[in-house]
Structure formats: C-alpha cells, structure tokens
C-alpha cells in the first residue's frame, strides 16, 4: 500500500489549480444513463472514485472514453444491457447507488447492492428507496440488494425528504426526468453540485427548476438527448487548500479554477471569522493567507449547504489546532466523523471529544509522527498536520486521499512542500 512522506515545517508558497468537483462528477456520470446519445464531460478530475464509477458503467454496457490528461470523458449508454450494480463495486464507493434512479427511469429495472456502511457512518439509503416508491417503482430488498422495477413509466409525484440528502435528492431528480408528469421535491439538498446536475440535465432536454427554499420541480420528458458539459470546480478541494494555507505558518497560496471566486464566496464568512485573508484576483483566481500572525478559534457546527460543509470539518479542525484561541466544532451530519482525532492526538493536538462536539485547544505546532488515514477527508487533515510539523511525517493508506484529491503530491510540491509518495 502506498504511503506519503512529508518533511514539514516549510512555508507553502505557489499556485494550485483546483480540479473539477468529485461530488458533481459522480452524479453527472450516472446521469449519462438517461440518454442513448453520447455525453461529453469536461474538467473531469482524475480520481479513483471516478474510475470506480466508470468501471460500473462499463459493466452495465456503456461505452466509456476517458482521457485523464485532458480531463475529458465521453460516455454513450446506448448499448446498456446489464442492470446490476454488484456489491464488490458498490461497497468500494457508496455513490454507485446513483445508478439506481437513472436505470429505473430509462430501463424500468435495476438491481443495486445496498452500499453498506463506511468509515464515517451507517450511510442508509432509505430516503432514496421511499422516493422511488413514491414515483411508482416496486422495490424490495433481498440478499443485500435493492431490486427495483416498474411495469410502466415512473409517475411524477410530490416527494418530501425527512432530512436533507445530497445523493438522495440526485437519485430522485434523475429518476423524475423520464417520469410521466411533474415531480416536486420538498426539503431537497441544494448544494452547488446539485445545481450543476440540474444544469446538465436541462441541457439534455429536461425541464427542472429549483428555489433556495429547497423545492425542486421536474417536468418529466419521454427522452433526453446528449450534451457537452463542463463540471464545476471542487469547492471542498478549494476549501481544503485555503485551510492548508492557514495551517502551515507563513504560507500563502494562489488558487485557480473555473469560477472559484463564486465558490469561495459561499463560505467566505467562515474564512474571515477564523482570520484568513482572501483576495479575489479575478473570477477564477484567489490569493489566500492568514490575515494576522495566528488564526482565531471558532464555535461552529456542520450543516447542509449553505451551512458549513461536513466535508471540511476535519480540515477546519487541523487549522484550529494552530489558532490563538479555543474552538468547538460540532458534527451534525455523520455519526462517526472524528476518526482523524486519535491520529491528530498522536501528532500533539489537544482535542477533547464530548459526544459529537470536538473541543480544540491551541498548540504551538504539531509533532511529526507515522499516522494512518481512515477516510477521505480525514486523510487530508493528516497531510495538513504533516506539512505544519517539523520533521518527517508518514501517512499510511493514502488510497483514501486518491479518492478525492487529484495529484496531491504534485500540487503541493509546486508550492515548496517536501512531499513524496512511497510505493
Ligand atoms: C454526500 O453524501 C457526499 N457524497 C458526502 O461527501 C457528504 O459528506 C454528504 O453528501 C453530506 O454533505 C457525494 O456527494 C458523493 P446524505 P450522501 O445523503 O449523499 C442521512 C466526501 O467526503 N441519510 O446527504 O451519502 C445520512 O445518514 C463525501 O466527498 C439517511 O438517513 O449524504 C446523513 O446523516 C463523504 N437516509 C444525512 O442523511 C438516506 O437515505 C446526509 O446524508 C440518505 C441519507
């Protein structure tokens, strides 16, 4: 298993290009199942999660042509003749459940493995199943598989989500695009990645509108056509590097990527309150560094968009270890998303967990140590601590990082970091 070795304590200084958003790319790939015409996606990040989902689409029978060097991907789902997403693929990446809605909508049948849990929590899909049943699907669960079918087209309906669910909302949107009549989703997730999916589906002939009051209306069509779509930048990777610049003393970074100024504005309040200086150079470029010698502590909790994203929680925690005052971070989305804490404690952090709240006390700096990555975002928080600590930090199980961060060593090495991958 690969590991990453960092010789830390060196200020970061340089340019980082932000890649396309992983959590937009995955539903967009699933959405290509809805048409028998080719769909081309641009700004596709070269991530293991993307390759995993593309493998699933090929298993279903889609033609996939991905050129990671120019981040372009073309998929044609005309010849899909298999409708099963097997456990060994779905367990690797629960977002594979996103093929359920499109397969059901276009082929009226799907057999998708239940995703099973993952490191951060149980990850149920009951909202997906209830929503599809509301659209007229017959669904039963046996042998760990979701067996879905419908004898005729899905029928538009009103669907209320008991809790905001990102992929749950995405699955229902995609299923509803080919349903008869109108579907209204209430208490929908409205992340930028969902807006990106809506925009691509509308460019394929859908008629979808949404409001900030978490209502999405989908007018069903008999078929959709192909399109060419550029994926939005990854706001979580963006936030990760902003917080990295705040964590490593005397660092400053220039971040570039399609429309990242707008994506930064969505979370600018957080960055200002912890003491980051964000200069907007142009719509695709920002300059970031600490606005004073030390960051300020914060009291915050994770929430669905537009609140503070849970996918930045581990990264914020690391930055707050270096603040001049105490912080409290409450995790409200996932029941087990503090696995980075024991590893950070081994690097000298002063963090106490009280239920789902982390109490962080300032430390001068992290201490280098061998650590183990446990899940995608936690693994990057260990990279940040390693970049800050003097001496060598070794991070094991870096496959977690490769799921969501493209070329992490390359991007950081270009900013003076001493970081290398050991095969
Ligand atoms: C998406 O996961 C993201 N993944 C996650 O990012 C992110 O942490 C999460 O949204 C929250 O923002 C992708 O978009 C591929 P949810 P998702 O359904 O859709 C409960 C990363 O790091 N729930 O919004 O699986 C659930 O238990 C990943 O990139 C149900 O109870 O999350 C959780 O408490 C990690 N039943 C809450 O809702 C359901 O049927 C939000 O989950 C569905 C969800």
Description:
Helix 13 links the parallel strand 22 and strand 23. This protein is an alpha/beta fold. A 4-stranded mixed sheet has the order 22-23-1-24. The chain has a 4-stranded mixed sheet with strand order 2-15-17-16. The longest helix has 13 residues, at 48-60. 31% of the residues lie in helices and 27% in strands. Helix 1 (22-31) runs parallel beside helix 7 (192-203), helix 5 packs parallel to helix 6 (166-176) and helix 6 runs parallel beside helix 7. It is built from 15 helices and 24 strands. The chain binds ligand EPZ. Ligand EPZ binds at residues 22-23, 26, 95, 121, 123-128, 163, 165-168, 189, 310-311, 333-334, 376-377, 404. Ligand EPZ binds next to helix 1, helix 5, helix 6 and helix 13.
What class would the helix/strand composition place it in? alpha/beta
Ligand kinds: ligand EPZ
The biggest sheet, with number of strands, parallel, antiparallel or mixed sense and barrel status, is: 4 strands, mixed
Global Rg: 21 Å
The strand count comes to 24
Helix content: 25-40%
Largest beta sheet: what is the strand line-up? 22-23-1-24
| Morphology call | globular
Percent strand: 25-35%
Number of helices: 15
In terms of per-residue confidence, which ranges show pLDDT below 50 for 5 or more consecutive residues?
none
Query: How confident overall, as mean pLDDT?
Result: 96
Distance between the termini: 7 Å
Keywords:
423 residues; alpha/beta; 15 helices; 24 strands; 31% helix; binds ligand EPZ
